[in-house]
Amino acid sequence: MSEMKDEIILRGLKEHNLKNVDLNIPKEKIIVFTGLSGSGKSSVVFDTLATESRRQMTLNYPLYVRNQMPRYERPHADLMQNLSPVIVVEQRPIGGNSRSTVGTYMDINPLIRLLFSRIGNPPIGSASDFSSQSSFGRCPECGGFGEVIAPDLNKMIDFDKSLRDYAVKFKPLSPSGWQGHWMMTCGLFDPDKPIKDYSEEDLHLLLYGPREGERAYAPFHTKNGPHNAEWDGLLPRFTRVYINRDISKLKQVSQDDVLAVSTHSLCPTCQGSGLNPKVLECRINGLNIAEYDQLELPEILEELKNIKDPMGESIARQAIPHVKQLVDMGLGYLSLSRKMGTLSAGEAQRVKIARHLGSSLNNITYIFDEPSAGLHPEEVDMLIMMLKRLKDQHNTVIVIEHNLSVIKVADEIIEMGPGAGVNGGEVVYQGKLEGLKNSPTATALNHKLKINKNPRDIKSYFTIKRASNNNLKNISVDIPKNVLVCISGVSGSGKSSLMLEAFTQKYPGTIMVEQGGIGISNRSTLATYMGIMDDIRTIFSKETGQAAGLFSFNSRGACPICKGKGVLTPEVAFADPVTIPCEACGGTRYSDEALSYRYRDKNIVEILDLTIDEAIQYVEIPKIIKRVQTLKDVGLGYLTLGQTTSSLSGGEIQRLKLASHLQKEGQIYLLDEPSLGLHTEDNEKLLDVFQKLVNRGNSVIIIEHNQNFIAASDWVIELGPGGGKQGGQIIFEGTPEEMLHAETLTAKWLKDGVRKHSGQAVCN
User: Is this structure's pTM higher than 0.90?
Assistant: First the structure.
């Protein structure tokens, strides 16, 4: 009898665009899923395999425990067998609040706090006292935030204007908000007198409130008559309501609104650590806990290895592997205090991977969503070593990836396609690398790197002088205008510090397309995200004489049974959730009344079912055509106007975000790694968009590792030579052709790309 192969068996997969897919996935191998963005990779790997594994894992817990855990619906499939437990490392930004750091995310900080509480000198109480979030540990001056934020009078008040003329420039305290209205009607201040003409007494009362020991009654007028209230002063009120809290949690007012009228500086009491000065007196081998947090990771390793106290040594031994995992992933330039929200996509991806590397479990299925995202080619080798290490520990490693270096090391390649969206959802190839032919990935593997031999002429520059943001070493640089510029360099070399901070501070009119999500939901569609849904509803309203709200499934037009969701999720107590299409509306979300009205022989649902390509031909409104055309330009012509943003792949979201920015008229476009989540074929379309933008007289600057983008640009600026303290310098400026003669890490890979395809060495 032949030996049974241990493999994951999947039959009849129908999630999203999958067309009854059958797959056998071998275990203890590196399996790479590839294919165009939107071809169905995530539908197989995340929405079917990972979801079913998680669902079955939760079935092992008692009902009352399962009720507290995430609930997973059984994916649309005929058969799913031989699944093993999954660990998923997604591309999504790491959650957490503004206090979340590398140390807290990796669970290293609790061990460091324990270490200081046991062997620090002079001794301080418990481990929790070394936290800026404890009542004893937090700095009394800044409340544990490390920064002192104070209102800036000159930013907040225009002294030449009156209260009624918006002298207060902070919106919630201006006449448009209830607090501004209260100021004008309470009787304490003349709302029509310029602030500069107030008496000294009135000015003090307005800005700082009543003097010590005094009270100022200021009735608050409502439709039910005046209510007693006391005036506390503009600056004390602003400080109390908008500063003395975690400003990242404010809902109506954004953090940017508050910071626009404030100054924020390092807290002089705790020097930015957020800790009580008494806590900072406690030291181990001359260093306090804040200094520990600021060390680069290899320096922390040395400190931990130098601890000789028996109790301290046992705690240090627990922390060392976590720190070492980060160093092994090439993140040695980070510190424990580095805020998670400030990491680039590549750095965040590697921190997430490092968190899982400490596990000694095996027979696990590890699923990675584009682990090469944000990595310089030099760093991809480290990633490949890590994937092989996981496989060698008898795990199955499934990777969704477009990076050709990662695809080449796969034991098995599964390509989805042949196209994207409705044109995808099939397996077009499964097997070894050498058998891959006549597919988008086969074409990409044979793609020749085209070095731009005729860069555009440079006539003028954007100038940055003596930039010292984060690790930048006081650098000055000229960035050419009206051409395609590529900013490259290894992770942590200072690309984001230079461009997303120093550059945008000097040129605030820049249209910036950053990484990160778009706030997806199953009620948000392409039409709503692109700002054309209101126009579509207005067309129907004018055509039919009905209110525009009738053509919204979030308003009057919603199906009365499913309330505009299109599906019903019956309450099934402790069982897994079940989603069924609404029979009343057939999943359209709209009421019969809404569907009875038509524009050019189509009802609202039929209009939303048009693909982008079809809509350009069908809808005659110039504003709609202009916005929809940007979606076609970035290669999303196959999506429908009514497609929900929650159903889009990572690469599709990246391009949707780009399209929404391209409809803005501007002169400077700055894009942070636009190739993330995109297949080589999709990148070609994106490059065309950038070249057209430049041809129309714009400046396009991209932060990018992708060699095709670097090779096609007019000018390349590389930062380095390393990351963190070893970075922050300009190590190359010139054309892609000149880069072939340089000795930098990016140049090394560019030469390698040219050499592979030309079969000849590149001269130095």
Answer: no
- Reported as a single tens digit per residue, the pLDDT across 525-549 is 999 989 899 999 999 999 999 999 9
Amino acid at 525: T
- Enter the tokens of residue 164: 């009624």
590 contacts 554 by C-beta, under 8 angstroms: no
Task: Name the nearest CA neighbour of 651 among 48, 36, 89, 94.
Answer: 36
Q: How many CB atoms are located within 10 Å of the residue 746 CB?
A: 26
Q: Is 509 exposed, middle or buried (0-12, 13-18, 19+ CB in 10 A)?
A: exposed
Phi, psi of 327 (to 5 degrees): -65, -40
For the segment 686-711, what is each residue's pLDDT rounded down to a tens digit? 899 999 999 999 999 999 999 999 99
Lowest mean pLDDT of 48-52, 135-139, 413-417, name the range: 135-139
Which residue, chain included where needed, has tokens 């140049």? 747
Which DSSP symbol is given to 170? S
Single-letter residue type at 110: P
Whether the Cβ atoms of residue 208 and residue 235 lie closer than 8 Å to each other: yes
**Encoded tokens for 374:** 């944000």
State the first-to-last Cα distance of the chain, in angstroms, to the nearest integer.
61
Who's near 434: CB < 8 A, 6+ residues apart? none
* CA angle centred on 731, ends 728 and 736, rounded to 5°: 130
698-717 per-residue burial string, b: 16 or more CB within 10 A, e: under 16: bbbbbbbbbbbbbbbbbbbb
Give the length of the chain: 764
* Chain centroid, CA 226 distance in Å: 47
Residues 6+ apart with CB under 8 A from 78: 11, 12
Residue 119: is its pLDDT beyond 70? yes
